[in-house]
């Protein structure tokens, strides 16, 4: 995990921390970068410079305790020589080392051992921090991404860059993969150990998804309260908005935090949110996904999310065809896949839906139907695809899908789905698999606890069109 540069930096840090134990004028390099030091800062209430030195000493003491369990003599030599401040001669005499030169040699050896202990502790603390931040993200939505590696790298560079730009907006149409790209970019950045905390907020239909999964109208007061809640900042029952703003400002200025707001639709709300939160940022940062390009702002970078390139689109078609057991499509030549890309472009969700339709109908029938519909824009394309998919699923799947807009965006359990739909458990399981196979149901959670949700586009088209579809089919 650590490069040779990291190893050299850790050695310089350990040596300077030991030499400067009783000499505060000796600078200790890399203090601010190391997780073993930064984690201790939360427990020290002193002026910043003093707190940093105390946190460094705490980190060294912790490493010495570990070293004592591995090599008691090495830990004792370093403790006497640097912590207690003994001279080499006094240390030699205390430990009966027979000569000052032997003490010097053993001391150098002990420093090298302490560096290895510190590296191991740093790796452990960074991995722990990474797991803590990653747990805030719906990481299952970023599985098996294709063709966006360079874009995720670019976004990551913007997030860790030390510039005057503290807000980043990922802009793209619905179904283009903004959320997945956002999540993957953040997972990459987490490895760099740049942020102390992470907040994930999701918008839905112009409102904000709250802690209990419900959707509430977005106000700046509610936004601040939700961020504080997610950060674990305690708030007195009678706290004022002014006090909450001060709490949030102090937290974000002290602990570099990444605030992510996903699924914005309105340009007005997007601009309002960027303007409001800009005063709180630096060193903290804001990352948005939005369908509307924000107004020009010197402290904002807008990154357009393009369609997949041709080869990436082909790769996604083959991946989805393989998952759907469409062997012929999965192994087809590029020229056979070209008509799909010509029709739906490099829109990931549209590709997934069309490929899943081709598992039920022939590909030529699906493509001919979409061509004959005289589709004028991407929304009409999706509407037509959803309509055809609706016609291919079972009555039980339609009934289950129709209740999904009522579920929280974070998902709903199979037990709750059974309660709402009235389907027997065996039929429910088959129906869930059917909807997942048609890319109409997203699977969240872990092996031990599954949650099911629908894409925001699926929800939009269900709410707009499901009654018309149901009436055309004689009821749901």
Compact overview of the structure:
By secondary structure, the protein is of the alpha/beta class.
> What is the count of β-strands?
9
CATH top level assignment of the largest domain: Alpha Beta
Q: SS-based structural class?
A: alpha/beta
The parts where pLDDT drops under 50 for at least 5 residues are none
Largest sheet: 7 strands, mixed
Shape estimate: elongated
Widest sheet, order of strands: 4-3-2-5-6-1-7
Helix content: 55-70%
CATH topology of the largest domain: Rossmann fold
Q: Into which percentage range does the β-strand content fall?
A: 5-15%
C-alpha Rg, in Å?
Answer: 28 Å
| Strand/helix succession | HHHHHHHEHEEEHHEHEEHHHHHHHHHEEH
Mean pLDDT: 88
Number of helices: 21
Let me know the CATH homologous superfamily of the largest domain: P-loop containing nucleotide triphosphate hydrolases
Question: How would you describe the overall organization of this protein?
Answer:
With 476 residues, the protein is of the alpha/beta class. It has 21 helices and nine strands. It has helices at residues 4-19, 35-41, 48-70, 72-83, 88-95, 100-134, 149-160, 178-190, 220-231, 241-254, 267-277, 310-323, 327-330, 334-344, 348-358, 363-372, 378-392, 395-403, 414-421, 425-437, 456-472; strands at residues 167-171, 197-204, 207-209, 215-217, 257-264, 285-290, 300-304, 442-445, 450-453. The two termini are 55 Å apart.
